[in-house]
Amino acid sequence: MLDKQTVRNIAFLARIDVKEDDLEPLANQLSGIIGWVEQLGEVNTDGVAPMTSVTNQVLRWRADELTDGGRADQVVLNAPDKLDGCFAVPKMVE
Amino acid sequence: MTTLTDLTLAQARDGLRNKDFTARELTESYIAAMDKHRDLNAYITETPELALAQAAESDARLAKGDAGAMEGLPIGMKDLFCTEGVLTTAGSHILDGFKPPYESTVSARLKQAGAVLLGKTNLDEFAMGSSNETSYYGASKNPWKATGDDRDLVPGGSSGGSAAAVAARIAIAATGTDTGGSIRQPAAYCGITGIKPTYGRCSRWGIIAYASSLDQAGPMTRDVRDAAIMLGAMSGYDPKDSTSANLPVPDFEAALTGNIKGLRIGLPKEYRPEGLSPEIAALWDRGAQWLKDAGAEVVEISLPHTKYALATYYVIAPAECSSNLARYDGVRFGLRVEGSSLDEMYMKTRAAGFGTEVQRRIMMGTYVLSAGYYDAYYLKAQKVRALIAQDFRQAFEQVDVILAPTAPTPAFGMGENMADPITMYLNDVFTVPTSLAGLPGLSVPAGLSATGLPLGLQLIGKPFDEETVLRVGGVIEDAAGFTAKPTLA
């Protein structure tokens, strides 16, 4: 079902570096799980609305006002790399 | 004199108020017990100094007669709850060194009620697992052992450290979270009580997210009364969680009247599949008889889509997990592995930081949400989920509460189910449907297996009717008279 190339693609979408040697075993595992969940195809779901909310509640409105902020120090507190209150990342644009 | 760590939460609460002992003495007893049982690996981080400082504050409030519902009671906090200034790991390498600058709503409520924090308990990485074996910090051990067999057993998962700590008397109670059974299954494996309340009862704010439409916090305790007390302290409306229910919190302890005369109890026939262990079936029958003896009426019901619940869960939960865990990218917190480009840094960080099961679920979720497969898998699972929820709604037109086993087996040996993910997933066969429907579920220890290990019975209730669930659970508890203690405590 899932071949190596598909897994390589999923791994990139998920931004997980999977070693070349691990692609094949992972493809087998994921295929096993996908094969198992395909039993859902047996269920007749014609006309059934997908369940998107567990408690049938409507999302609440709130006033559009500032309630928090001014905490740059706390926001970047745990950053592996930071500079002047900003998160620092590898250079993206040459 | 009774050992202080043997007291239930309710007994300790009353003892503190009667000034039989102080919060400091109680906390010191627990810290000493934690030292003695560190081999269980139930805690990832211990916070004895914080605990003693909080105990001193509790003693001051107790002296003034100003005690909260959890005043001076030393608890464990599953290491999925963000705790201000205290290392929070989610059992993952990727959150190395993360000290949240804020407190989760549930842990804040417990603190407000006077609870003392003993430490952060072990769990499966990001709560993804049924045995605690996926924790980056090593598995927690079950304090129970099978008769005449010295092998280490799993405490269940994902709230395995919490369950082990409560069972081993190294926490008077602990918080858990439950996405597909992560409170109820470890409670059953360790011979303690655990309730997953209705989705929306406890705020999810500040709890590290796994699958947001399923995650729910709840208490893990020595008995049903303790669960009622602690659930009351954890519950309540929170504007910071958009799915928090704006409903009053009942006095759950007052619901424990022991009177279940005339209640209708449903036994779902689909929960007795071919191959169900005879001792689990017998325990379930015994439970039904206890409820009949107490004046309830027991009827068979049908939840026809039960057999599709696990497959539904293993599409929906990984889908939500792949989205929720996108935030761990080496930029804002935790581990970073450098790379020559931003993408390479992301990919190396996530490869090094996430364990095998977490990577598997992220990729599974990415696949079922990807273009071309979304309708076939994710949308299909959401539709089947609607049918599973509908099964429960229809059943609750006939009955007040549902009785079922909690897990298909007692605790298993470490390493036994790690080879095949699907075998591991099957542990949650009786708990996952309730999670998908967002309903309250309670596990109560109800007997021992032939091998001397605890077995749990589960009560499932209508939305926001934790009171009936707890009341019936109390009757099961009284009838079962479960007094066995783990080998190590």
Q: Supply the CATH class of the domain at 4-261 and 406-480 in chain B.
A: Alpha Beta
Label the structural class of chain B: alpha/beta
Kindly state the mean pLDDT of chain B as a whole number? 96
Oligomer: heterodimer
How much is the average pLDDT of chain A?
92
Active site (chain B): 78 (charge relay system), 158 (charge relay system), 182 (acyl-ester intermediate)
Catalytic activity (chain B): L-glutamyl-tRNA(Gln) + L-glutamine + ATP + H2O = L-glutaminyl-tRNA(Gln) + L-glutamate + ADP + phosphate + H(+)
Organism (chain B): Insolitispirillum peregrinum
GO molecular function, one term (chain B): glutaminyl-tRNA synthase (glutamine-hydrolyzing) activity
What does this structure look like?
The complex is a heterodimer of chains A (94) and B (489). Helices cover 34% and strands 4% of the residues of chain A. Chain A has helices at 4-13, 20-37, 72-75, and strands at residues 82-83, 86-87. In chain A, helix 1 (4-13) crosses helix 2 (20-37). The longest helix of chain A is centred in the N-terminal third of the chain and has 18 residues, at 20-37. The model of chain A has no long low-confidence stretch (mean pLDDT 92). With 489 residues, chain B is of the alpha/beta class. An eleven-stranded mixed beta sheet of chain B has the order 1-3-2-4-6-5-10-11-9-7-8, with helices on both faces. In chain B, strand 10 (441-448) and strand 11 (454-461) form a beta hairpin. The model of chain B has no long low-confidence stretch (mean pLDDT 96).
